[in-house]
Amino acid sequence: MSDNKNHIAVSKPPWLKRRILGGHGVEMVRKRLRANHLHTVCQEAHCPNIWECFSQQTATFLILGEKCTRNCRFCAVGHGPSGPPDAKEPEQVAKAALEMGLTYIVVTSVTRDDLPDGGAGHFAETIQQIRNLIPVPQIEVLIPDFQGATAALHTVLDANPNVLNHNLETVPRLYGRVRPEAIYARSLGLLDHARAYRKDIPTKSGLMLGIGETDDEIAQSLKDLRTVGCQFLTLGQYLQPSKEHLPIDRYVTPEAFDHWATVAKSLGFERVASAPLVRSSYHAKEMYTETAEGFVSK
Fold first, then answer.
1. Is the dihedral of CA 159, 162, 164, 167 positive or negative?
2. Which residues pair with 206 in a beta bridge?
3. Tell me, what's the pLDDT at 25?
């Protein structure tokens, strides 16, 4: 496929326009989050699917505060100094998940390079509290890179999440512009080590498209992910959160996303979600449950 199929559009194309939903479900989720003093990546990252997910009474919990110690130029989450983690937060996440009737819970965090373990212990405690309150939950964690610390990664994996997710976000050439405090090889290494340490826990990753990458670079990153044994993949359109963030390079068409799904499956990814509005945790339960019964460590 050539790059000319991914031409930039003059204005936001129709496939990116979402109807805003409201109603009882949305308000109930908001009330539960406020009551438990919790944050979600849905709100903090300006996710375009927030109304759909909240209306279905689901959300992706954001732990370790609402301020990130890094300043990625694509991300709407606030950055700056942050206080110590809230010791009550793991239990509050579990309580909110129980109240929302969730059986598949996705937990992510801001990056906390200021903490000795990067927040890994807080992830582990959150997983434990969820298991204490909810019978047989399925838990997906979307983790930062912990600055490459394998001990921190082991802490999370030893807590037995059902899926370990860590996003590459973009291709290596763009890291300096898009993720200046991250390292492509370090992220790949984390996924590689996770797979080697716990073959029974599937790994997942994702890329944003439309931020300046080429087709050849996308293809190479998909190959890189398969080289380290990554099984689940998400591909979605980058959307500029504000004028202060990186501009959109192009709007990738739904047909192009279909093409990349075909490429990814041919490379051996077990599950692929590839569409303009796909995000890391969008329909995460469906991605996991459709493979769980047939999942085999390889």
1. negative
2. 234
3. 52
- Residue-wise pLDDT tens digits, 239-251: 887 788 889 999 9
Q: d(Cα 205, Cα 281) in Å, to the nearest integer?
A: 10
**pLDDT value, residue 66:** 83
Contact residues for 265 (Cβ-Cβ < 8 A; gap 6+): 272
Between CA 67 and CA 44 the distance in angstroms is 9
Neighbouring C-beta atoms of residue 240, cutoff 10 Å:
16
Tokens of 76: 């709407």
Give me the pLDDT at residue 243, please: 83
Amino acid at 228: V
Query: Please, are residues 202 and 270 in contact by the beta-carbon 8 Å criterion?
Result: yes
Q: At what angle do helices 89-99 and 24-35 cross, to 10 degrees?
A: 160
DSSP H or E segment with residue 266: helix 254-267
**143-161 residue pLDDT tens:** 999 999 999 999 999 999 9
Q: How far apart are CA 42 and CA 29, in angstroms?
A: 12
What pLDDT shows up at residue 44? 44
Contact yes or no for 144/118 (Cβ under 8 A): yes
Which two structure tokens, joined as six digits, stand for 161? Answer: 């999440």
Give pLDDT, residue 284. Answer: 81
DSSP-based three-state secondary structure for 105: strand
| Burial of 208 per CB tally in 10 Å (0-12, 13-18, 19+) | buried
In this prediction the pTM is 0.85
* Residue stretches of the chain with pLDDT short of 70: 1-10, 18-59, 76, 291-298
CA distance 128 to 94: 9
Residue 208's beta-bridge partner residues? Answer: 236
pLDDT the model gives residue 162: 96
CB-count burial class (<10 Å; 0-12, 13-18, 19+) for 84: exposed
- Which residue type, as a one-letter code, is found at position 156? V
